[in-house]
Records
---
Amino acid sequence: MLRLFLLLAAALFATGLYGALSQRAVVMIMMGLELMLNGVIVAAAAFWRYAAPAGGAQVIVVVVLVAMAVEMAIGFAVVSALYRARRAEMTDMAADLRR
Amino acid sequence: MAGSAPAWAVPLVPAVLVGYAAAAVAGDAVLAARSAGRRVTLAVLAAPLAEVPRLLTEQRRTTLAADRTLWRLGPLAVPAAGVLAAVVVPFGNVVVSRMSVGVVWFNAMEVLTWAAIWMAGWGPNSVLSLVGGYRLVAQGLAYELPLMLALISAAVGARSLSPVSVAAAQGGHLWFAVWMPAAFLVYLASVLAFSFLGPFGYPAAGDLAGGVAAELSGPDRLVLRAGRWLLLAAGAGMAGPLFLGGGAGPLLPAWAWSAVKTLAVLAALVWARRRVPAIRADRYAEVAWVIVIPLMVAQVLVASAVVLALGGPP
Amino acid sequence: MTAVLLAILGPLAVASGLLVFLLWSMARVTIALLASFLAVGGLLIGLGLAYLGVVVILMMTMEMVIMAVFMVAYMENPAGLVRAASSGRRPVSLAFSTTVFGLLAAGIFVARWPHRAGAPLQARMPLRAGGPPRDATFQLGDALMGPQMLTMVTLGVALLATMVGAVALASGRGRYDRFGDDLKGRPPADPVRGGVGR
């Protein structure tokens, strides 16, 4: 059972990785990152249930949830600031340092 | 996680919820008739129920390039959220799911309304619906944190996240509505806010020709309208165990007291709906974040201090 | 019971995750991601982490609705009416992520995971023999307030920094725009007056 849950976590992680690598828009890359963190949550919960039912495994899930929230907040703030400064919402538009 | 619920309790939840919602709709019709100066007869009470077959057989309106999946899913999710939220509400001593985190589940189910109404606003590819959907998101951001803190303060008072335990903790002690008045008032206001009725009816307001409900017709319109009243009934049903002592009372059995308390809260909410005008979200968003949230944090602090000092609820 | 939940919700989560990058309409993409998160929340509840599962459902619904607002605001094709521009990196990304999945799967099946014979004892947590701890929520709260207090403090400070930083980054107007050059203009020059009247 642990192996099946970890397989699910790996599948979610790989799907998120595909998205984070192949998308151009910043918001879509963030969605890929969210899916990867989703996979980490499933893995941590499976470890809590089947390997180590200590408080620490649940704290890992909490830390990942907070990381997701922080990533989304700062990510959207950065996208808003970029868009306002340069009307650029794609990563290739924002890559140059020129004005 | 879920305790042993008797098999007859599972279809009881939607049935009882629909009963409470019908009572609320009837009360609303009575108040509307009285404020319009008409006599209250049986026809007035039956008029909202006569809408049901009319809407079920009405032809569905279509719009250009509508996103049909999201448009159908949105209004369907509203009554689903109401019924799912009511699954953890104890009616007397009967509860379908003795989830240990029932209070948080109730909160999560009413947040599904955000997604549902946003989808219902986006689906029909219509400006007025879209504005209505976004209005609910703005309103949601304002009421959600105060509601969470109100629920937390009730849970802190009972030292448990299960509504059954919160109701049981008020047996023989003061009701939570008495020594946590700010939490109770904020909870009642939030029930009106998440069912977007009355003063918080901004997303479906008249200045948007019905807002989210503008392009809905036929069964979808019925589902959305029913969903709002079901959410109101679920919220009123939860007010009993959380703040008013659940099924406790001198003479009547537990389910009767639970019904009396739910109907009393429903009556108060329906009266407030008729009395208080709809407020724009930008007028109360800053108030909610700058005044109400610190007030609720202070309320949680007071509740925690009282429980720690006395070893339990007073 | 857990196996049934995994069999239903697991493929649902992965399929919704894949749909996120295959659908054209940005609104549907956000709802697909929400479906993936709801499936993971259900799995967490089924694993016995009731509080964390419900919190995942709660937080992710709110986050996805806010993300939908931003998607519609900033994406070039929010309704999916026009075919989305392809990025040209798709084949390489697909190959790379498939390779990563293969390596992870191989590692999962080759590694010898510890088999939990009995649950570890904790003084304040009476346990059923061989099963998960009786109240996972209490265990989480006890851990965060006790041995993992440093984690909690760090998370709190990080969230505070995020709030301040996000508002500072995202707001286009500062004190001088609101109060004038000498910071003395009252009431502040806002496009929308707030309810408090400051």
Note: Residues 7-310 of chain B form one domain.
---
Amino acid sequence: MLIANNLTKKYGEKIALNNLNLHIQTGEVFALLGQNGAGKTTTINCFLGFIKPTSGDVSINGVSVVESSSDTKRYIAYIPETVMLYPNLTGVENLAFFSSLAGFKYSKEELSSFLTKAGLQESAHHQSIKSYSKGMRQKVGIAIAVAKKAMALLLDEPTSGLDPKASNEFSEILKELSINGTSILMATHDIFRAKEVAHRIGIMKEGNLVSVIEAKNISANELEQLYLQTV
Amino acid sequence: MIVLLIKNFIRSKGFLVGLAILFISGMIGLNIGKQFLDKNRDIIEKTAHFQKENIHRYVQYMDKEMGLLLYYVRFGLVNETPNIVGLSIGQRDINPSLHSVTIRNLEEQKYTTDLMNPMYQLIGNMDLSFVIIYFFPLIIISFGFNLVSEEKEEGTWSLVLSQTSNPQKMLRLKVGIRYISILFILFLLLIIAKFYLSIPFDIYLITYILTAFLYVSFWFSLVWLVISFHKSSSQNALILLTSWITLTIIVPALMNALVIQLYPIPEAFSTVLESRDGYHTQWDKAKEPTIEKFHQLYPQLAHFQHPKNKDFSWLWYYAMQQMGDETAIESSKILKEKIRKRENLSKTLALLIPTIHTQLTMNAVCSSDMANYLKFVEALEEFHKQKRMFFYPKIFSDTPVSSENWDNFNLEYFKNQPFINLYMVLLPYIITTILCLLWANINFGRKKYTL
């Protein structure tokens, strides 16, 4: 479970997040929509413990990130907007490395199956990352997150750079993770992907969560209209 | 994880280039050391041969007067050059390892030495010590300056931080891999050196190895300290290169200036002048005072007298030569004392500066430091005195040249076994390295791991 209580982050006079309250249940997918600078990435970074909130608190599975961010690391997996990997290693090796950082040791077959499941063609598994496109790196990032078997998944524009087919495959992975009980917080610009995957959608503007909608109660077009009116 | 970190490091282009540069320059350093040893050995062998040949030739030509013969004949004293000198040539390229002297005025003869290429003396010898002191830190810096910042700048850091609560373990492994790879080259070069230069495995080689190992460790701890401030790659590179320039060039130059300022040695000039004047002026003076002084110095020779109504005698001539040394004796003492003080001050200040401490320690264990040369000069003075005391009675009593077995006068050897205080050698590194690591640890703890 991901919880933000009165979360505020200020950079000098600028308010990046203003009193944000968020409760994401086990197995729930919550999508954050908003323009650049709305506070989506700041919210995710607060959950990751990368930045310290000015006030308020964030907790993962009941553990405060502010007080013990290192303890919460084992509950979360993260896919950044642009997944950057070690260029001198192959896809499989990168996955093995990041998994070992998280304390997991997988066999070659298991590593390959994670990559295949993330949509990376088998011929690329043992190629150097130097030859990977952005989309291929993104898929390795997805495999890294899935292999961590975390309770919560934090995604910052995860489908950025993915082709429509890969994007669709990614949505399926998220759904499967959600069914298996993973809580997912996803920052995105992709209204249609948010509608398709998320249970709830929040729209942010200038650090405020201005509206939260149940995805099943709204069509993609209505969501788009609402989004455009809000921002 | 470690296997993958090794793979990542080995596959980077810089890895092989860096290690290859170190290895090749190390081998060049060893070769320069070998050439120095060979040249030195050659000089000694030739001198031994020519000393015998010259004595025989002079004995044939000047078989009447021993005084005249000993005006020309030179006797050589060798400052024994252990093979470990090949690792650190130090002062041996400036100060000769062999002095061939007559029994005449010694002071002037001390400064008679081989002609050297001044360009060589300006840049110094690129021996293994030079490679360790100057090149190793540069490659260590290039391997480590961006250990953390590279992750941040290449974008992998956020993923790393999301995967583990303890990225320091990964960083330690990364620096450990680089440390081991550098140590591998260092020990490989030292093993090659041991056999290539035929260096005995003794306390001196062990001290040299420990010094090199701790010097490399110091530089890694400095790199670890700098990266603990979490600055950008360019800032880290700038800080580390500035440290390198400061520690290897600026501080030694400042220290040298300070030592010269504190202990100026005008005596270096005055000793030679006084020595020359000491005997040259005797030509124009009455002979009796010169001989009187000589008899005061050597009462056991007081029964030898200058023949009355004669302008020249070997007693007077060698007494006059002796006066050269006696006149300069005070300046010579002060000169040696000041050089010793310079050496001591340098060694004390060097305890705070690992680069200079390394250079001085390596020179000391390789018997190529100033202390070794000073001891050699003292041995030369004793050697010269013994020769004088042996020949003076024979010269003054007109002993026939043929009565002496000249084959007995071979090269003689001075052997110095430097005393190594391991605590003083190792502690400065251990203290500075621990301080760097502690400071880095505080930084890593304080800054936590953020983007």
Note: Helices of chain A lie at 40-48, 69-72, 91-101, 108-117, 134-147, 164-179, 191-197, 220-230.
